[in-house]
Design brief:
Blueprint: H1 5-19, E1 21-23, H2 24-31, H3 35-47, E2 51-54, E3 57-60, H4 61-68, H5 70-75, H6 78-90, E4 97-100, H7 104-112, E5 120-123, H8 126-132, E6 139-142, E7 146-148, E8 153-155, H9 157-163, E9 168-173, E10 177-179, E11 183-186, H10 189-201, E12 202-208, E13 220-223, E14 230-233, H11 239-244, E15 251-254
Parallel strand pairs: 4-5, 4-9, 5-6, 9-12, 12-14, 14-15
Antiparallel strand pairs: 1-3, 2-3, 7-8, 10-11, 11-13
Length: 255
């Protein structure tokens, strides 16, 4: 049965509300319509403020609101994130070129780097860039592109081309999900695309994340665990989850 536009958009809104996040391809298959039709519907629903468009799909409005407050996320597992950041900073050597990804743990890494000298920091995080800006002894490179307001991160085609110009000694990746089978995943497809490039151009690949992200599978795939060298987390992780990550590839450090 052919659906009218209003009926179809109501169904789309309901699907997104129920699932939290959907892809364009899954909606097209579910409603038996073309991908261009779904794209137009999502653009219209985004304009009306009913959903939020993401790379390759859409996110429920309430899920977006959960992600808006960077300050709230900064306070969550505050001490654990600082411990993780301290360990990460101890790995950074003089003359290193490092990439700081987005996220609150990487913000704390940036904060702890304020007194370091003779390193180069490349980042797509506006928060990290501002935190580092007072240190004249560090070379800062802020990637240019579109701004994702929910995470204060920079993404897009120009950002991808920008980052491909560099090679890094280490990348410190944040994540919204890390799973023994599904690997690294992200809420936003835009951020997942940037993380993939970061991994390509970095020699050492390090994930920094508090224990609440372990065992979680999020919306957009980033990489299998075989692509990661080390995961730095805290001791709050459940013993059963720890065992699941054994022999998956990376070295796990629980602080």
């Amino acid at each position: 049965m052919r659906l009218f536009q209003e009926e179809r958009q109501n169904l789309i809104t309901q699907f997104i509300s129920d699932k939290g996040r959907v892809t364009i391809h899954s909606l097209a298959k579910e409603l038996n319509v073309s991908i261009p039709t779904i794209r137009r519907d999502l653009t219209e629903l985004n304009r009306k403020g009913m959903i939020r468009r993401s790379h390759g799909g859409a996110i429920a409005k309430d899920r977006v609101l959960e992600e808006i407050s960077f300050e709230k996320r900064l306070k969550k597992f505050h001490q654990e994130k600082i411990q993780i950041a301290k360990y990460a900073v101890s790995m950074i050597k003089e003359k290193d070129v490092i990439i700081l990804d987005t996220g609150t743990t990487n913000y704390w890494i940036a904060s702890l780097l304020k007194n370091r000298k003779n390193i180069t920091v490349i980042t797509n995080s506006l928060k990290a860039a501002v935190e580092l800006s007072s240190n004249k002894d560090i070379r800062h490179i802020l990637i240019g592109g579109y701004i994702l307001p929910e995470t204060f991160s920079i993404y897009g085609p120009s950002a991808v081309e920008d980052i491909k110009k560099f090679n890094a000694d280490k990348v410190f990746l944040g994540t919204t999900g890390i799973h023994w089978e599904k690997g690294l995943t992200e809420i936003y497809g835009e951020e997942a695309s940037m993380k993939k490039i970061f991994l390509e151009i970095s020699r050492e690949k390090i994930v920094v994340t508090d224990h609440s992200k372990l065992g979680i599978v999020s919306f957009a795939h980033v990489a299998p665990l075989s692509k990661i060298d080390m995961v730095i987390s805290d001791s709050g992780v459940d013993a059963k989850i720890k065992r699941k990550f054994e022999n998956t590839g990376p070295k796990f450090v629980y602080l």
